C-alpha cells in the first residue's frame, strides 16, 4: 500500500519517474532530462521513499515497473500532458503568434509544404514555423511538436486526426525521356524504360508499388516489375525521374508542381486509387490554439479546388489516450524557419547549420 500523503512529492521526482518509466532506462531518461543517470536514480529513490513503496525492479535488461508503478503511471502521464497543454495556451497569448513546430514526412515536406510555405509566412508573419521532416514516432507530450502531417489510415491513438488530402498513383517521367524513347504502346514503353522504385520510410508496406500498379493496369505479364533502382524517399525517386533516369510512380501531391511546370509528364492510363490519405494530427486539447488553427486553415485554403482535397471531412478522435504520432531532428535553418531531417534531403533555404542526428 502507498503511504497516505500529507503533501505531494516534488515535481522533479515525479518527472524523473515519468521519464524512466516511459523509457525503461535511467540512461535514456537522463538524456531526455539533460541530467545524469545517477541524478535520475536519486530522484526516483526519493519518490519511492516519499510513497513508501518500490516503483521499479532493476534488472540486467532494464527497469521493470512494479504493480504500484503501473497503476499510478497513467495518471501521472495524463497530468504532465495537461500541464504541457495548459502552458502552451499561455504561449499563444490569445493570438496567432510565436513558434509552431510541424512534423511532416520528408517527401511531403520537400515536394508540397516548403514550396508553398512562403505564402503562410506572408499571411502570418508573427508565427515562426519549425519543420521537423521525419516519419519517426514522437510523443506530443515531450517532443515539442504542435501539429503533425501523417500519411495513413487515420488511426492515431488519443489524437484528433483530420483527413485533408487523398492521393492516387500514376507513372511519370521527364519529357526528354518520353521524346527519346517515344510512348507508342505503353506496355512497350514500360518494358524498355527503367522503373524507379519508392521504398521510402514514410511509405506503408501495404501501399502499392510497380507490382500492384502493373497488375491493376493488366500489364503484369508484359513488364518485369522487379527491374530498376530503389530509393528510400519518394522525393528521391521523383528527382530521379526529373533527371531522366526512368519512370516513377508518384502522387499528384508530390508532382503537381513539376507537371504544371513541364518538368514531368504523366503517362496515359487510369491512376490507381490509394487506400491511405494525408491527415492533420494533433492532441485534442490543443485544438483551440490560434497558431495551430492558422496552419490548419492555410492548408485547407491551399487545397481549395483540388480534386484530391477532402478538406472539411469530419475529424476522428481515437479512443486510446496515448499521444504518439511521429518526428525526428537534425539540420537547423535560421531565417524565421527551422527545419530538420534525418534523410538529409536537400531543401532550398538559406543558412543551413548541419548537425548529426542519431540513427
Tag the structure with descriptive keywords.
359 residues, alpha/beta, Arc Repressor Mutant, subunit A, D-Maltodextrin-Binding Protein, domain 2, 2 domains, eleven-stranded mixed β-sheet, 11 helices, 37% helix, elongated, disordered C terminus
Shape: elongated
Between the first and last Cα atoms, what is the distance in angstroms? Answer: 42 Å
CATH-defined fold name of the largest domain: D-Maltodextrin-Binding Protein, domain 2
**What is the element string, with H for helices and E for strands?**
HHHEEHEHEEEHHEHEHEHEEHEEEE
The main sheet comes to: 11 strands, mixed
CATH architecture of the largest domain: 3-Layer(aba) Sandwich
How many structural domains are formed by the residues? 2
Q: Which class of the largest domain in CATH terms? A: Alpha Beta
Strand content: 15-25%
**Average pLDDT, to the nearest integer?**
77
Q: Which secondary-structure class do the elements indicate?
A: alpha/beta
Radius of gyration: 24 Å
* Uncertain parts: 309-359
Number of helices: 11
Oligomer: single chain
Which percent bin holds the helix content? 25-40%
How many extended strands?
15
Amino acid at each position: 500500500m502507498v503511504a497516505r500523503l500529507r503533501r505531494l512529492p516534488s515535481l522533479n521526482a515525479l518527472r524523473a519517474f515519468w521519464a524512466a518509466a516511459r523509457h525503461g532506462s535511467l540512461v535514456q531518461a537522463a538524456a531526455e532530462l539533460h541530467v545524469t543517470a545517477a541524478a535520475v536514480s536519486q530522484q526516483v529513490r526519493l519518490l519511492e521513499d516519499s510513497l513508501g513503496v518500490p516503483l521499479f525492479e532493476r534488472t540486467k535488461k532494464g527497469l521493470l515497473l512494479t504493480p504500484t508503478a503501473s497503476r499510478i503511471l497513467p495518471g501521472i502521464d495524463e497530468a504532465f500532458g495537461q500541464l504541457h497543454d495548459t502552458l502552451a495556451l499561455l504561449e499563444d497569448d490569445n493570438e496567432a503568434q510565436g513558434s509552431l513546430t510541424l512534423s511532416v514526412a520528408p517527401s511531403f515536406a520537400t515536394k508540397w509544404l516548403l514550396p508553398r510555405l512562403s505564402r503562410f509566412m506572408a499571411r502570418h508573419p508573427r508565427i515562426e514555423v519549425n519543420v521537423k521532416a521525419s516519419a519517426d514516432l514522437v510523443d506530443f507530450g515531450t517532443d515539442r511538436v504542435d501539429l503533425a502531417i501523417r500519411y495513413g489510415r487515420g488511426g492515431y491513438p488519443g489524437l484528433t486526426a483530420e483527413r485533408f488530402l487523398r492521393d492516387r498513383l500514376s507513372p511519370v517521367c521527364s519529357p526528354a525521356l518520353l521524346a527519346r524513347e517515344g510512348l507508342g504502346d505503353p506496355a512497350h514503353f514500360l518494358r524498355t524504360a527503367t522503373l524507379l522504385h519508392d521504398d521510402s520510410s514514410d511509405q506503408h508496406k501495404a501501399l502499392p508499388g510497380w507490382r500492384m500498379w502493373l497488375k491493376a493496369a493488366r500489364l503484369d505479364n508484359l513488364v518485369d516489375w522487379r527491374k530498376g533502382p530503389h530509393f528510400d524517399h519518394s522525393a528521391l525517386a521523383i528527382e530521379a525521374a526529373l533527371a531522366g533516369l526512368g519512370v516513377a510512380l508518384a502522387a499528384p501531391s508530390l508532382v503537381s508542381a513539376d507537371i504544371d511546370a513541364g518538368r514531368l509528364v504523366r503517362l496515359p492510363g487510369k491512376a490507381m486509387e490509394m487506400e491511405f490519405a494525408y491527415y492533420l494530427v494533433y492532441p485534442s486539447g490543443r485544438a483551440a490554439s490560434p497558431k495551430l488553427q492558422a496552419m490548419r486553415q492555410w492548408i485547407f485554403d491551399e487545397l481549395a479546388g483540388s480534386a484530391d482535397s477532402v478538406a472539411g471531412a469530419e475529424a476522428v478522435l481515437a479512443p486510446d489516450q496515448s499521444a504518439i504520432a511521429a518526428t525526428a531532428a537534425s539540420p537547423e535553418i535560421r531565417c524565421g524557419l527551422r527545419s530538420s531531417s534525418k534523410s538529409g534531403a536537400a531543401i532550398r533555404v538559406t543558412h543551413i547549420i548541419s548537425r548529426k542526428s542519431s540513427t
